[in-house]
């Protein structure tokens, strides 16, 4: 041990003239004490910057997680909203037939503008909306049941019911028009 102490003493003796022996200016002590009182001054700003960077990183990660969850949820919703066309190519043709027929009948009804038939049309649209909601429920049931034939028949029956409502509505509209024409003919001949 003594030997190590001698080596260190010798080293200090050799470097004696190379040490910085200047005295700091009078404000140096005050600046040093101010930094100590401010708990590091510059370190405080650095920690704020680090927290801000951490916050940005975490918010980016959170946004990514939200996006992934949203995409996953949307994928599940599209999977769960199966319709008749998803069962088989024949059912797709059946659905297309019913959809085209319903759209064609709806166009005929929408072209009717007589005030006498507006209540009939409004009632028909109300019943159609109810059947459309029922159909949405059936699409969920189809997904859950795994293409159960009873659900498929209920979906077909729903389409047929909508077509029946539209055809009956058109018949009622024609009856109202014929009655109106007969009334006009009778009043004009009198």
Describe this structure in words.
The protein is mainly α. It has two domains: about 1-80, no CATH class; about 85-190. It has six helices and no strands. Helix 4 (about 90-110) packs parallel to helix 6. The N and C termini lie far apart (about 140 Å).
Tally of helical segments: 6
Number of extended strands? 0
Could you name the ranges where pLDDT drops below 50 across 5 or more consecutive residues? none
How many discrete domains? 2
List the helices and strands and how they pair.
Blueprint: H1 2-15, H2 28-37, H3 42-80, H4 89-110, H5 118-145, H6 149-189
Helix pairs in contact: 4-6, 5-6
Short summary:
The protein is mainly alpha-helical and 190 residues long. Helix content is 81%, strand content 0%. It has two domains: 1-80, no CATH class; 84-189.
Defining traits:
190 residues, mainly alpha, 2 domains, 6 helices
């Amino acid at each position: 041990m003594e030997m190590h102490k001698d080596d260190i003493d010798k080293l200090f003796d050799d470097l004696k003239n190379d040490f910085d022996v200047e005295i700091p200016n009078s404000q140096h002590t005050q600046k040093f004490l101010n930094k100590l009182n401010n708990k590091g001054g510059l370190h405080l700003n650095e920690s704020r910057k680090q927290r801000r960077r951490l916050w940005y990183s975490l918010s980016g990660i959170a946004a990514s997680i939200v996006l992934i969850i949203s995409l996953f949820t949307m994928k599940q919703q599209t999977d769960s909203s199966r319709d008749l066309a998803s069962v088989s190519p024949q059912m797709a043709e059946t659905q297309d037939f019913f959809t085209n027929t319903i759209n064609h009948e709806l166009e005929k009804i929408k072209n009717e503008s007589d005030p006498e038939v507006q209540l009939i049309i409004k009632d028909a649209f109300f019943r159609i909306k109810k059947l459309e909601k029922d159909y949405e429920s059936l699409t969920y049931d189809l997904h859950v049941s795994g293409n159960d034939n009873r659900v498929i028949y209920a979906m077909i029956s729903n389409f047929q019911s909508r077509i029946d409502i539209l055809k009956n509505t058109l018949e009622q509209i024609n009856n109202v028009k014929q009655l109106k024409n007969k009334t006009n003919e009778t009043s004009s001949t009198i």
